[in-house]
């Protein structure tokens, strides 16, 4: 997260829950076979397409190049992070819905405006997010929605997501949501572990084994 006082109030969960949850970039896959053809992941029966992931990565790389530097731009790492973020967005949304919570467009706009004012304008905010958080301009609202959502999951139980207690609440909520959503990740990107609430390395033997008879 951007380390400002405003973000600490609104969205600074990256150093707590989010920082742990998506440290790889950012559920046990149901079934050991590959995800549907053309899909990077399947969440609650809905495909996250490889094309969507590649477009997200390309946008980030282009914006970073235009700025002359920033986060690691090696495509494989960025692709894995993109898949992780897209899956986590849906898991957070489900966890919020299960608790009859939501993050409104107004809350996102308020948090963005507050951070932009502290940083000296919307342009500076976008640059900070891009170069320090690896968030492309088109993903800014999704970034705030995810972070504010995680904060709300902890706050619903009277906890701060940055604390040990709050982190545990968030992890439990997201693990339950991920299991309900039956997340399946294409093994080329890894596998989603609901207990860790993270994308992990896929088993090397995910392909069916041949038997002696076959």
From TrEMBL:
Pfam annotation, one family: SurA_N_3
Superkingdom in the source lineage: Bacteria
Protein's name in the database: SurA N-terminal domain-containing protein
Species for this entry: Kitasatospora cystarginea
């Amino acid at each position: 997260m951007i380390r400002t006082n405003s973000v600490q109030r609104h969205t600074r969960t990256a150093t707590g829950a989010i920082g742990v949850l998506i440290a790889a970039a950012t559920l046990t896959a149901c079934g050991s076979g590959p995800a549907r053809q053309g899909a990077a992941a399947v969440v609650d029966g809905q495909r996250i397409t490889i094309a969507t992931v590649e477009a997200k990565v390309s946008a980030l790389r282009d914006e970073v190049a235009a700025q002359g530097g920033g986060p690691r731009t090696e495509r494989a790492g960025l692709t894995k992070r993109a898949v992780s973020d897209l899956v986590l967005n849906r898991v957070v949304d489900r966890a919020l819905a299960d608790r009859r919570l939501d993050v409104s467009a107004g809350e996102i706009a308020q948090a963005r405006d507050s951070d932009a004012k502290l940083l000296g304008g919307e342009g500076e905010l976008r640059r900070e997010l891009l170069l320090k958080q690896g968030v492309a301009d088109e993903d800014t609202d999704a970034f705030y929605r995810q972070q504010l959502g995680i904060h709300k999951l902890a706050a619903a139980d009277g906890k701060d997501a940055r604390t040990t207690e709050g982190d545990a609440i968030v992890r439990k909520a997201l693990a339950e949501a991920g299991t309900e959503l039956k997340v399946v990740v294409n093994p080329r990107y890894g596998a989603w572990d609901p207990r860790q609430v993270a994308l992990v390395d896929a088993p090397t033997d995910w392909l069916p084994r041949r038997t002696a008879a076959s």
